[in-house]
Amino acid sequence: MKSQLALTAFFSFFASRLANACSTQSGVTITFYGYPDNTPPGPATAYNCGGRNNIAGGIGTYSNPLTFASAPGEFNTCEIIYVPYLRKYARFEDTCDTCTTDWRSGKYHIDIWTGSSTVNGGQNQINCENDLTPNAQNFVRAPPTDLTVDSTALYANGQCATSHTYNNAPASCSGSTCSWAGHCLGA
To answer: Which of 74, 68, 151 is nearest to 110 (CA)?
Structure first.
């Protein structure tokens, strides 16, 4: 009986580790949203993932990931992913109607928060979101916590950070891609 309990505990532990194992997904639609085109306009999110109280934000580090929206059920609420195209971590905190339609068709779609939680960037911000939107990219689920991070804001003070994108950057579960310790912290 004890050996059966030990074996059951071992397999339960192993199964939980597999469920949380790092994996990559390619062919992902990535779009962007912000204060002016959120529904309703503003920084509110569908899920409270702690610390931000249902307010979108983040800088893209593992400890302060960007908010992303997707279809309910496509990700676990508050799940953190890594987006090589941006070299940023993002957390599932909101929903997206187009993402839901795509998910029902079997396509991954994430919509990433671009801006301020207090300032509406208007049409200039929406133009930036369109400029940032790439062809299909990839992302990493259950990523290592020490991947390279570019903490440059995607949209701030009327400026769009299109030069801080990394088209077709490889997705990897192999651990750190940091060239020096501060790099992964966004320094």
So the answer is: 68
Cα dihedral across residues 40, 56, 95, 165: positive or negative = positive
- In angstroms, how far is CA 63 from the centroid of its own chain? 12
Lowest mean pLDDT among 95-104, 144-153, 168-177: 168-177
Give the pLDDT confidence of 146-155 residue by residue, as tens digits.
999 999 999 9
Q: Are 141 and 18 in contact (CB under 8 A)?
A: no
Which residue spans within 85-158 are E strands per DSSP?
88-95, 109-113, 137-141, 155-156
Q: What's this model's pTM, rounded to 2 decimal places? A: 0.83
State which H helix or E strand residue 82 sits in: strand 80-83
Q: How many CB atoms lie within 10 A of CB 128?
A: 23
Angle (CA) 74-18-170 rounded to 5° is: 65
